[in-house]
Amino acid sequence: MERRREAQKKIMARYAKDIKSADTWSVFKIIADFVHGFDELGELGPSVTVFGSARTDRDNFYYKKAVILGDKLGAAGFNVITGGGPGIMEAANKGAYQNPDVESIGLNIDLPMEQTANPYTTKERTFDYFFSRKVMLVKYSIAYVIFPGGFGTLDELFEALTLIQTKKVSGVKIFVVGVEFFQPLIDFIEKTLLPQGMIDAEDLDIITLTDDLDHIAEQIKTSLGVQIQALEEVGMKDTKYYHSLSSFFENRNIAKGSDSK
């Protein structure tokens, strides 16, 4: 136990030095995080990011649901991106891993505890910094799925909500799995934040709370057309990312329809 504490102190000290110091060399480590991420993920094609607790064991109800969803997404041709660790992340990667035509991606983080890479990835990358990793988790995804989790998962949920609310990303759907788990949080948003004017009524439409995995998979397919249109509107038709999405859209013969919940 004492050795573990000492190891944690050393790692935390290193992060504090990198972030708080005026050491300009730290900038190159930060840039490296982004460059490697862009190189490895920029041409993936349509992908879905799944967030959730690293502490969920393999007998957990939501672990099993995450495996099923990962498999459904992979079977539909979507790559699956997670934080690369155990728990829900492992489960979603495990489901996707069963489909050889897609990538099961793990974007890990160097932590003193909890975060060990799971064995169900076809692509993986370990980041030094949370903020660069978080960019990569959301940048190349057409949808975000949030399973039950702790502070880290809630942070990722609200960051995704903020990105969509402020129009930093468009056409992206957020699905929250775990009606029983998340209902008190949704109630707080609807009964406290909204009446006090902290959010607008339309902001509630960003979140789809459901335990219906088939509904999630179908809605992600539908939202792909909206994502492609969003890229066209901001002048990204000549990018490799746009072409990868549009090619998938055409090859899968996905019907264009309304982006309903």
Question: TL;DR of this structure?
Answer:
With 261 residues, the protein is of the alpha/beta class.
Detailed description of the structure:
With 261 residues, this protein is an alpha/beta fold. The chain has one domain (2-251): Rossmann fold (3-Layer(aba) Sandwich). The protein contains 9 helices and 7 strands; from the N terminus they run ααβαβαββαβαβαβαα. Strands 4-3-2-1-5-6-7 form a 7-stranded parallel beta sheet, with helices on both faces. Strand 1 (47-51), helix 3 (61-75) and strand 2 form a beta-alpha-beta unit. The longest helix has 21 residues, at 213-233. The chain is globular and about 45 Å long. Residues 255-261 have low confidence and may be disordered.
